[in-house]
Amino acid sequence: MAKKIIFFIIMAIGFILIIKMQMNNNKEENKINAVEVDPISHASLILNWDGKAIYTDPVGADMFAGKPEADIVLLTDIHGDHLDLEILKTVVKGKTIIIAPQAVADKMPEELKTKMSVMNNGETADYLGFKVKAIPMYNLPESEKSYHLKGRGNGYVIEKDDMRVYISGDTSRIPEMKNLRDIDMAFVAMNLPYTMDVEEAADAVLDFKPQKVYPYHYRTPEGFSNVAKFKEIINSRNPEIEVVQLEWYPKP
Predict the structure, then answer these.
(1) Which residues cross the membrane (predicted)?
(2) Half-sphere exposure (Cβ direction) of 173: Cα atoms closer than 13 Å
(3) Do 125 and 222 belong to one domain?
(4) Less crowded by CB within 10 Å, the N or C end of the chain?
(5) Distance between CA 100 and CA 147 in Å, rounded?
(6) pTM above 0.70?
(7) How would you class 195 by CB atoms within 10 Å of its CB: exposed for 0-12, middle for 13-18, buried for 19 or more?
(8) Which helix (H) or strand (E) segment is 47 a member of?
(9) Below-70 pLDDT ranges, the chain
């Protein structure tokens, strides 16, 4: 009799653990599904998240027609594929907050300066219910001739309701990326000579292990990085990381 009771107790505990695991899996899936990704082009994207539209590096004429009004605009760097002042003037509305490092803020025209909130590497602030942290982005090895100097540009981690999204900006496999934790969704750049090649980008992703990774910003002077190879490397070494390939370069 005692053995039967122990058996049923073990079965009950196992059943409860299975139910809890399923509930946790559903919770994680619902959390990630709460963020809709709209790939615009190259470095430009929109996160539609909890009724807010978060733009990143809006660049490109006519690419934002019909899109929801920007609540937050994240700017990463001063280069033309990240900073387009004419497009900014069209997407920034009365309620929009622009978040950018000082180097970008210094280039803002007077009409946009009132919308600016300057964040530099390592700083954290709350905007419209989202916690935003500025993550360094820079090239290795560090050099005065680097395309991206440490401290000038920002990557970002955006967080709400335990959902954490990382946008790398133009960077190498830097220690600050390696030290990221609990990232649900990551956007990682890969285009030599400006950022990483696909092997380095894959190693970087394998360092911090996001649940999902989106290769973006992969146009190169010669064409495009081999994002299929990036996916293959990730899948072969950590199949639990989901690689999501979207259309970042609309055909004319």
Answers:
(1) 5-23
(2) 14
(3) yes
(4) C
(5) 18
(6) yes
(7) buried
(8) strand 44-49
(9) 1-32, 252
Structure confidence at residue 6 (pLDDT): 64
- Amino acid letter at 128? L
The Cα–Cα gap between 15 and 19 comes to 6
Q: Do 104 and 29 sit in the same domain of this protein? A: no
Tokens of 140: 């290795």
In a domain, 74, yes or no: no
Q: Which domain holds residue 139?
A: 98-243
**Residue 144 resides in a domain:** yes
Q: What is the pLDDT of residue 22?
A: 54
Q: Is residue 154 part of a domain?
A: yes
> Looking at the structure, do residues 19 and 139 belong to the same domain, yes or no?
no
The token pair at 8 is: 């049923």
pLDDT in tens, 142-157: 998 899 999 999 999 9
Model confidence pLDDT, tens digit, residues 21-45: 554 443 344 456 789 999 999 999 9
> Which residue, among 176, 140, 134, has the nearest Cα to 153 in the 3D structure?
134
Residues 27, 114 within the same domain:
no
Domain assignment present for residue 152? The answer is yes
Q: How far apart are CA 183 and CA 33, in angstroms?
A: 14
Residues 27, 108: one domain?
Answer: no
Cα 14 to the center of its chain, rounded Å:
37
